[in-house]
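Are you able to produce any protein sequence you like plus the matching backbone structure tokens because I've never seen that pairing?
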Amino acid sequence: MEFAYTAEQEELIRTLRAFARKELAPRAARVDKSGEFPWDTWRQMGELGLLGLRTPAAYGGQEADLVTMGIAIEEVARGDFNASYGIQLAGLAGDIIGRNGSDEVKKRWLAANARGEAVIALALTEPSVGSDAANLVCRAVREGTEYVITGEKSGITLAMVAQAAIVFARTDTASKARGVTAFLVPLDLPGVSRSPLRDLGSHGAVRAVLAFDHVRIPASHRLGEEGTGFYQVMEGFDYNRILIALSCLGVAQVSLEETMAYVKERRAFGKALATFEGVSFPIAEAATHLDAARWLCYRGLWLADRGQPYTKESAMAKWWGPKLSVETIHQCLLFHGHYGYTDELPFERRMRDVIGLEIGDGTAEVMKIIVARELMGRETLPY
């Protein structure tokens, strides 16, 4: 195993770190306060190729490996955590549609998704179904050459601005996981409605509830065969959970770097704060944990790129990365004293943002069930 980036990846890091510092970071507080979707950021990421990293080259994408995807998300999150959602969701859309979409759907959506001209949400979670994704209630009923979709999806990231959503709905009520099918649903169709959510953080992610009241779509908008939707999303979740962890770690890392610079300058009792063990030891511990968590993430993506099992590493990264990042940012906030508690500094915003991903794509408790299953077998499952 190589513990080094390629020359191309090193250049990507330099480019995106400058982009995050010069373009994204100055806008992040404005987006948080306004709650408006940052279209300028979205278009810039499209121009940089960040939204097409997992899109087939035939449709204007990069077909990048997952390690490169992880680098992009970690670096972008350093500037604006919410911008990393775009890379995640555009990547999942490119993957799912590229592998399972009809020619009609691919031509209409893949290139637009990669260029940043279209926003495609991922609609899985429901009011009564979160981690137990095999028990979806939303229905899709075949009627001739169409499907009729009825149900509700909740907590859907980017739903207030998305032009379309990949909707997971039940096509077979007699089966659980094998009864779920994926569809590409344009969100301007009759019967679709949106209700915005007021979240603690990640205001630029414009989450919403999507309601589908007998929405008709052509059968050509089905993604893959009936009954394969659950497995499509689970395949994507494995790598996306690692990407989520890296986005959180990127925010924590830049917070730690800013705090190290501050405590070397800030003086108390005639000495720099950094000389006190009560300050330097927590920083040393945080740096150690962040490095360990980051390399766990990249090991998982490295395994995925080589077609090797990585579900255990994915679940480990997902429960640890966000939790560790929240704890690190919290400590950074405290080291900045009462100014850290104000919105003049970014720590309170970053902490609010990252907390959301202790929930999204699977809670720590669910991830630990997966880790235990991978270590000790299915007989350890509580269900």
DSSP finds eleven helices and ten strands in the chain. The domain at 230-380 is CATH 1.20.140.10 (Butyryl-CoA Dehydrogenase, subunit A; domain 3). The two ends are 37 Å apart (CA to CA).
